[in-house]
Amino acid sequence: MKHCRKPHVLVTGGAGYIGSILVPLLVKHGYAVTIFDAFFFGKHSIKNFAKDVRVIQGDVRNPPKDLFDTVDIVIHLAALSNDPTAEFNPTANKAINTEGTKVIGCMAKKAGVKRFIFASSCSIYDCGLHKVTKIKTENASVKPKNPYSQSKFLAEKALLKLSDTTFTPVILRKGTVYGWSPRMRYDLIINTMVRDALRYKKLHIFCKGMQWRPLISIQDVAEAYLLAVQAPEKLVKGKIINISSGNYQVGFIAKEVQRVFKKVFHREISLIYENDNKVDRSYKVSTKRAEKILHFQSKDTIEKSIRFLVPYILRHRALQQFSNPLFYNIEQMKPILQRMS
């Protein structure tokens, strides 16, 4: 009996926050996987599954020509990922997030890669705290105002231009991700709140907690990418798809963290409301397309994630080094970005 080979998936940024959860999921489902990563944060995040994948170190701005040999699908996660990092060096941000994506996309298409799944961001929809009125669909007009979201939007447009009968770009615009990863981050809203609850027993809330955020757990994100790999081409070709489990105001998120800490861990956490209007990023998104096209349904919750995350941190002393630059994109990347032209 003839057996069909599972597609070979190249994951750029495969050692990163999302990649180190996604890659073992792909392996579990029988896919051959290659990780392409600059390893700015080291290789510790892939130590438990490195033997099961091919690992290549390199820069998305200048990838090796044979990177795409036998590759069927690319999941492009590699990027400077968050506003502070992008704002610290906007030139490097554009070079990596936009121009690097163009390079990877063009080379993948030329090599015969069939599907290219791009990690974009719902921050593209940000219109400021006092202008949020509607839930944004993928068809909404957008005008990104920050370097990070601008770089992602320009990369989206470049990839969509490459779409033809042989090349299928798929854009996943993700909400703010949270939860545990081998490449742990404490610079994402729920992870930050968990850190502060453990470290200070209090959370600082800005803008009265009125900002809206679409959230998604890291486990659900990995599942969404898997669904994008598995979906029929005709359903996803050239599609932009929002990925989120729901829209939440920051004030509600803080109260939920406070509630879970009291209910589950019997710890009292104070909420401190700051008189500060500088943090005004705010947006809400629709996920109806993800539900229809990918049959995506969020399985995780804020409480479930915190129930796992807190004991895990308390069992691992290294994760309690809350000032370690490895847990913050901007702190780890600053010296690297200073050297970049």
Layout of strands and helices, then pairs:
Blueprint: E1 8-12, H1 19-28, E2 32-37, E3 54-57, E4 73-76, H2 83-88, H3 90-110, E5 115-121, H4 147-161, E6 168-174, E7 176-178, H5 189-199, E8 202-205, E9 212-217, H6 218-230, H7 233-236, E10 240-243, E11 246-249, H8 250-265, E12 270-273, H9 288-294, H10 302-315, H11 329-339
Parallel strand pairs: 1-2, 1-4, 2-3, 4-5, 5-6, 6-10, 7-9, 8-12
Antiparallel strand pairs: 9-11
Helix pairs in contact: 1-6, 3-4, 5-8, 8-10
Query: pLDDT average, as an integer?
Result: 94
CATH superfamily: NAD(P)-binding Rossmann-like Domain
- What strand order characterises the main sheet? 3-2-1-4-5-6-10
Tally of separate helices? 11
Which ranges are low-confidence, i.e. pLDDT below 50, for 5 or more consecutive residues?
A: none
Provide the succession of SSEs.
EHEEEHHEHEEHEEHHEEHEHHH
Count the domains. 1
Sheet having the most strands: 7 strands, parallel
Residue fraction in strands? 15-25%
Radius of gyration over all CA atoms, rounded: 19 Å
